[in-house]
Amino acid sequence: MDYIIKLAFVLLIFIYGWFFQTQNQEWDIDRELLKSANNMAVHDAAQEMNESERARGRLIFDRAAAEASFKETLEANLGLDDSLTPLAGSRLHSRVDVVHFEVIDESTDVTFPFLYEDSRYGITKYIQGPSVIAVIKTRHPVLIARTKNQEDIQVPAIQEYKYNK
Q1: Which residue has the higher pLDDT, 54 or 146?
Q2: What are the C-alpha distances in Å from 76 to residues 38, 61, 63, 90, 145?
Q3: What contacts 62, CB < 8 A, 6 or more positions away?
Q4: Which residue in 17, 53, 112, 155 has the fewest CB atoms around it within 10 Å?
Q5: What is the pLDDT of residues 21-51, one digit of tens each?
Q6: What single DSSP character describes residue 83?
Q7: φ and ψ at 25, to 5 degrees?
Q8: pLDDT at position 143, please?
Q9: The model's pTM
Q10: How far apart are CA 4 and CA 130, in angstroms?
Q11: Pair 77, 35: CB distance under 8 Å
Q12: Is the separation of the CB atoms in 54 and 162 below 8 Å?
């Protein structure tokens, strides 16, 4: 009987460790998926220029078109609907939130290069030219209920134009 109790205890520890490792792998996969999708989305958003200003030699984004392009790319690459909720068959299980979207271009009072800092999202970067900055997040995948809630998966991305000197 003593042997069976010890074996059951070891089996429970093994299963707990297995689920914990699987949960960590899910986090890694989801984070990499979000990072890739966010990078592609800010890239697409940065393509949305105000053409009349560009003809005058100024790089100014069309903010509405940039936001729409950003959201459309996220939806396509993550399998989301219009409210950024996963569709059936999507790799994600929770809604994706765009927690920060910012456009910095020549219409703002910024001279490039400048140090961009946002401590809320842990971003510090020298920006060389007009940029689109976005931070997205989703809930951490949970396989094992624990007393401590896992922090959300939060991913920043920056797409910038660099001036030729």
Answers
A1: 54
A2: 11, 22, 20, 10, 31
A3: 48, 49, 50
A4: 17
A5: 887 888 888 899 999 999 999 999 999 998 8
A6: T
A7: -65, -40
A8: 65
A9: 0.84
A10: 66
A11: no
A12: no
